[in-house]
Fold this sequence. Notes:
The protein is mainly α and 375 residues long. Helix content is 47%, strand content 5%. It contains 15 helices and seven strands. Strands 5-6-7 form a three-stranded antiparallel beta sheet, with no helix packed on it. Residues 182-361 form the Tyr recombinase domain.
Amino acid sequence: xxxxxxxxxxxxxxxxxxxxxxxxxxxxxxxxxxxxxxxxxxxxxxxxxxxxxxxxxxxxxxxxxxxxxxxxxxxxxxxxxxxxxxxxxxxxxxxxxxxxxxxxxxxxxxxxxxxxxxxxxxxxxxxxxxxxxxxxxxxxxxxxxxxxxxxxxxxxxxxxxxxxxxxxxxxxxxxxxxxxxxxxxxxxxxxxxxxxxxxxxxxxxxxxxxxxxxxxxxxxxxxxxxxxxxxxxxxxxxxxxxxxxxxxxxxxxxxxxxxxxxxxxxxxxxxxxxxxxxxxxxxxxxxxxxxxxxxxxxxxxxxxxxxxxxxxxxxxxxxxxxxxxxxxxxxxxxxxxxxxxxxxxxxxxxxxxxxxxxxxxxxxxxxxxxxxxxx
Length: 375
């Protein structure tokens, strides 16, 4: 069990009964005073914040999101209520705006800045994610009848329907937090060669090949089972993709070559289960490889290759960028990537160097022909 945060005077532990639940009437009449959430995480159970309404919401959302997303949402809620120090029923729009200001405040006396943009405070994307978590919470509480409105505005400068709790008919205004859309980083061919050359085992080469040539996410690589590998079809079955979606994707031969060598020589015979990628040495030998283990492998290879960047997601971005540059249709890339919306896939149009230049030169050639015509 892991406990994050500590209770302070005013947190009414009487809200939670001995069995961890609270009656609806008790929740409706509680909440006077301030409290500090206490995030409790136990293996195999839903995180708890010590408040019956927040814990009820976390139990509800646990069936809709992946475990890592659930933990992130629980932490976002802990951060918010640790700042406002109010029960959910008392939160107002003013509290939400004050929270945004607090998140933008300099950290550690202003001596810490982000290397990416040199700004202080949290990144706009982090603040926007936390506001999305809050908005979902208060939508749920409104539907349950515990709040008369959602205090998280959709935007500024518009009459947003969420104040009435309907969630309909909103007019678009200025966003609460502007998040610039940045192109993801990809690896050049030379960087790919350096990285793959720095890998030490066939297991590591197979994992990198799945991300670099198949576009799988880190969690999808680590969740792969032996029965999910279709050697004859040269495809792998992703059973638990983002949002719980499944897909069958082709992968280049380089993956199957590395996989065959890994299974024949490196993979321990006494492996705990049928996960493809397991720990090779140490006390955890034979157990499924973790996300931290894969990150450590990439960090070591990146250092040996002399690279400053090469994360799991950058390998995935590199895969789809190269496929688009080779002429693969956006709809096919969407299916390969497991994107719910093709709008997410469109970013690879801008990452592929030749596409924009080609479209521009074609258009300019037409304009030049028009300019050259006689009146």
